[in-house]
Write a structure and sequence with these properties.
Blueprint lengths: L25 H25 L11 H10 L6 E2 L7 E8 L5 E7 L5 E7 L3 H8 L5 E2 L15 E4 L5 E6 L8 E6 L3 H8 L2 E2 L7
Antiparallel strand pairs: 1-9, 2-3, 3-4, 4-8, 5-6, 6-7, 7-8
Amino acid sequence: MSEQPAGTPEPTPEAGERPSRYNRSFGGLLGAMIVTVLFVAAYIGFRAFTRDQPEVVEKVDYVAAVQELQAAGVQVVYPCSIPDGWRASSTTFDRGDPPTWAVGFVTDDDEFVGVRQEESDVDDLLNTYVDEQARQGGDATVPNQLGVATWETWSDSGGDLAYSATLGPPLDGQTLLVYGSASAAQQEAVIAQLTTAPVAGC
């Protein structure tokens, strides 16, 4: 191989050739920025969609609802008080003869307890509010102010529990269902406070 004489200038790239380096044009930079922004936005959206969101439960004044019904001459079953940290989340009243009444509660550990008073067969109520395949357990004796001596107990495969009873005078023929995801102890705490007495007497 022949050596290049000293002082001979280095050969320059031929016309049309470009140095092999990244194109740092403004258009390329802008494109990269857009891709980055879109990626970040997609990631944030994905995280917001998949992350567990806290459920906001509106608090309702169930005692005021009971008081209004009592003033109209309607007798409904309700708990005279609920444990600290619980909140009433819903009330439902449907006119009829007799009417249908329900009140729902959220416990301090975010479980649910519902109380439903309705002239319906207990199987129909279980199918709607517990499970079509609810299993009957042993009878329970829970002290209460309604005069109910024995409660039938129920459960489903998902862990929900329920207590049912047929009410006596003055609510003859109506079925009372206490149900939900709350524990047996929590549901029995509600049962112990159930009454039809005037709100002013609680």
